[in-house]
């Protein structure tokens, strides 16, 4: 009797497998959380060194227009004005999203509502191909085709915000398109059928029913595309000119936060003011990524409430 009771109380093979699975899962979760916390601590501690160790004024850093950390201005303060990179980063991000969004919505509507089955598969393959192309390839294509094209039409060097916007437009287009397709597919089928049954045309149904129902998802796709554009470094660096000057037009060379980081981080000494100033730029990028994530959560929660 005792042997039977002991056998019944003994953990089964499935129970042991479940326990092992839980241990592995919790270990991975803790490791990921520690990794994220270490990354945050590393970037924040080095990024704040500009203000705590080098005693640079925060407002001067955010609003200054001269970037030359190894030089002092007329008042004896280091020239670490990050405003030109901040303005340029937002300019290429917003412009590329504005250009890409209409194309992405049009392609997504065609794929989900209009195109025949083989057409959807073909466009899906094209989008997956664009997503998988490395950034350096986009940058090389921009350097070979876009920059000479801009130079031939408008003159100048061809490097600048306009070239960066065109390259980023191609890069964020598949991201916004694929997420918009998912949003349109999530709209209940009976919305479409009810609208058509009430006498609305297909375009009236698309404009007044489908797009309105999918608006939170489309906004989320746009924010994701902007986050991708804001954090892109290599491709933008190859076509924007990398001049840390306040942009006066779309055709003058400029520099984004990411392009300045990639070009300058290897030429500075760890712990020096020029190096700390670059870490402060990285801290701005981190904060903007958090803002984009919060925006995605906010828009997603609004979409859930409206359903």
Automatic annotation (TrEMBL):
Principal place of residence: membrane
Keyword Transmembrane set for record: yes
InterPro entries reported for this sequence: MetI-like, MetI-like_sf, Phosphate_PstC, Phosphate_Transport_Permease
GO biological process: phosphate ion transport
Compartment(s) where it occurs, according to its Swiss-Prot or TrEMBL record: Cell membrane
Record-level GO cellular component terms: plasma membrane
One Pfam family per UniProt: BPD_transp_1
Membrane protein topology class: Multi-pass membrane protein
NCBIfam families in the record: phosphate_pstC
Main function: Part of the binding-protein-dependent transport system for phosphate; probably responsible for the translocation of the substrate across the membrane.
PANTHER family: ABC TRANSPORTER PERMEASE PROTEIN YQGH-RELATED, PHOSPHATE TRANSPORT SYSTEM PERMEASE PROTEIN PST
Family from the record: Belongs to the binding-protein-dependent transport system permease family. CysTW subfamily.
The protein, known as: Phosphate transport system permease protein
